[in-house]
Amino acid sequence: MSSIRLALAQYDFPVGAVEANAASIRRLADAAQAAGAQMVAFPELTLSGYPPEDLLLRPSFLRACDGQLQALAEAGADGPDMVVGHPQGRGAQLYNAASLLRGGRVQHTYYKQALPNYTVFDEKRYFTAGAGSCIIELDGLRIGLLICEDIWVPEPARQLAAQGAHGLLVINASPYDQSQAARRETVLSERARESGLSIAYVNQVGGQDDLLFDGGSLLIGVDGRVLARAPAFEEHLLQVEFQSGSGEWQALDWPATTTQSPDAILYAGLVRGIRDYVLKNGFPGVLLGLSGGIDSALTLALAVDALGPERVMAVMLPTRYTSQLSHDGARRQAEAAGVAYHVLPIETPYESVMAQLSPAFAGKSADTTEENLQSRLRGVMLMALSNKHGALLLSTGNKSEMAVGYATLYGDMCGAYAPLKDVYKTVVYQLARWRNRNGEVIPWEVIERPPSAELRDNQTDQDSLPDYDQLDAILARFIEGQQSKAEIAEAGFDADLVFKVVRLVLVNEFKRRQSAPGPRVTRCAFGRERRYPITSGWR
């Protein structure tokens, strides 16, 4: 009975960092060899990072990837075999490729056959689909190589089984959403049962603009059973063994995943998104407006967990409408977190601007204009602090607000990154309670109070919006579920309320186009995968 040892590099390979990614590959290959691995497999498009988008249209970028691939092959002559993802041009065609580096040279190169062009994927813009299979022979065992989407359709795995593969190795850059892990396992189980081949599936980790990659690498048995799961949002060099007798991959001392609840995974993803966006873009830290409400409170907790308190500044910008509960809750959280904290009242600048505007407002009664002005003054002051300190401003709005336009352009929408942009309000509360499970991080009175923008006396969100349980249920059906107004009403929701909510979603597209990026955690985030026209007669 023969066996082989592999390492799966569940790591972050940032987009565009070609030299740094090559250095990480060399370092991890050395570590894999020291642990006894004969081969190490890296994620999809390791050298370029995923997704490289229009960097792929730059010849100099492609040349850099080619050069680093050759250098890796030559430098690794005495090291383990390496399976490295990279873009590769052939004449006028560009391929999403994976190469086997062995003995100081590129021995085989495989081209991805199935190119995804849905949700966040746009691979047909750049790549040509490959047509052939690839089997890697190692110590008498034949391992079929696939790239990500190849395993989501039956034919590539079926071809490898027919060509005598003993097992499958799949390298991936599969983005996270809250239901993706379950879908992956279902698809991989189907492919394993169809092909009769055990699957080793390695996925990358990290935040890239509005995408999160969760890792969650897997081993699947020939009968479709999940043999091992790697933790989400953690980097690991995972050791595996394939034995000819069982025909299955076996995990060797993988870290445990039993404590990773869905809330824990989502929270870890948001933390990772903040950390990677801030550090990869070279910011020294972040700041945010801390209002005493639930959204900014959760954002502060996430930022501190992502970056440490020394890199976070919280700013309270009160007016006459700011309650004592907001003052007390914000101060307590900031002090407990150990962040820099400033209270900068905006009442005086607000009165000054209103005095300047009063002649032009003559004959007009007060309305949301005055409320929005408060929010915009806060945005001005927060952006001034961002400029002065060089810190990135976090926007604290959630998906429910962004969906219906309950947010102020150039006010609370100011910011370079919005951690809760794809998190519904009901889930904001859920995560806040989860974060407090082992001790109060977010003041309980902030969690339990009725939500309010505090832009006028005795204001609550429900003056303008339905209860968030109802609102979020309607939004999820309309946005993620693509249901019509009639279908949502038929499901038991008040028809007038459904029509109001849907209209708000549609008429506020112009706001969302100007919003900061934020991490995608649902199946239909505002951004690259939900592209509706601003100007449209469809209602």
Automatic annotation (TrEMBL):
Keywords attached to this Swiss-Prot or TrEMBL record, sorted alphabetically, are:
ATP-binding, Ligase, NAD, Nucleotide-binding
InterPro entries annotated for this entry?
C-N_Hydrolase (IPR003010), C-N_Hydrolase_sf (IPR036526), Gln-dep_NAD_synthase (IPR014445), NAD/GMP_synthase (IPR022310), NAD_synthase (IPR003694), Nitrilase/CN_hydratase_CS (IPR000132), Rossmann-like_a/b/a_fold (IPR014729)
Please list the residues that make up the active site. Answer: 44 (proton acceptor), 44 (proton acceptor), 112 (for glutaminase activity), 148 (nucleophile)
* Chain positions recorded as ATP binding sites: 289-296, 396
Domain of life of the native organism? Bacteria
> Which residues are recorded as binding deamido-NAD(+)?
372, 401, 511
Enzyme class at the top of the EC tree: ligase
Catalytic reactions of this protein: deamido-NAD(+) + L-glutamine + ATP + H2O = L-glutamate + AMP + diphosphate + NAD(+) + H(+)
List the EC numbers from the record. 6.3.5.1
Protein's name according to its UniProt entry: Glutamine-dependent NAD(+) synthetase
**Native source species:** Frateuria aurantia (strain ATCC 33424 / DSM 6220 / KCTC 2777 / LMG 1558 / NBRC 3245 / NCIMB 13370)
